[in-house]
Amino acid sequence: LWNVKTLLQNSKLENLKVEMDKMNVDVLGIAEMRWPDGGDFWSGEYRVIYSDTYKPGQGGVGIVLKKDLGKRVKGYVHRKGRIILVKLDTEPINTTVIQVYMPT
């Protein structure tokens, strides 16, 4: 378990990708990304899919996928910075990845 505390600073995403490589992680769920709006983009060999926030600078969830899995995304949905669901076209059956943020 690793707490990046937020991904508001650009360098944090780069650090996250380095750690994913070192630990051989293909899929990573993130809580409290704190990025505005929702989006889907490629950052080098990684696909980042993230939700909006329920309040500016708070909450937000996301999923980071290595290139092979990033290419297999069939669709995704997110709601109010608390939950994101990504559907992957995998064999022998499709895979669904869910990341949920429930603040204490």
Automatic annotation (TrEMBL):
Protein's name according to its UniProt entry: Craniofacial development protein 2
SUPFAM superfamilies the UniProt entry points to: DNase I-like
Record-linked InterPro entries: Endo/exonu/phosph_ase_sf (IPR036691)
Top-rank lineage group of the source organism: Eukaryota
